[in-house]
Amino acid sequence: MKAQASLLIMGRVQGVFFRANAQQIARKFSIKGWVRNLEDGNLEILAEGEEENLQSFINWCHKGPKGAIVKKVDISWREYDGKFTDFNILF
């Protein structure tokens, strides 16, 4: 079953290549959507795909890349809409 999740990732998550690594991991799990930095130093991700793959991606987001210190991940589940064709870094 396909699902969509909105993630707010808090902690030391900017300046540690989190977005580039998230893009690689998302593509590995066939996750579509986007990741972007927020002005407050946190990250926002909108991701969709097969529920099992999405959960694996979310599990990775709880750790992040080397150098990241993830303090909290807020997850909001949404209805899958299939509007994304890739996983992109938004600027």
TrEMBL record:
It is an enzyme of class 3 (hydrolase). It comes from the Bacteria. Its EC number is 3.6.1.7. It catalyses: an acyl phosphate + H2O = a carboxylate + phosphate + H(+). The active site is at R19, N37. Signal peptide: none annotated. Residues 4-91 form the Acylphosphatase-like domain. GO terms for molecular function: acylphosphatase activity. Belongs to the acylphosphatase family. This is acylphosphatase.
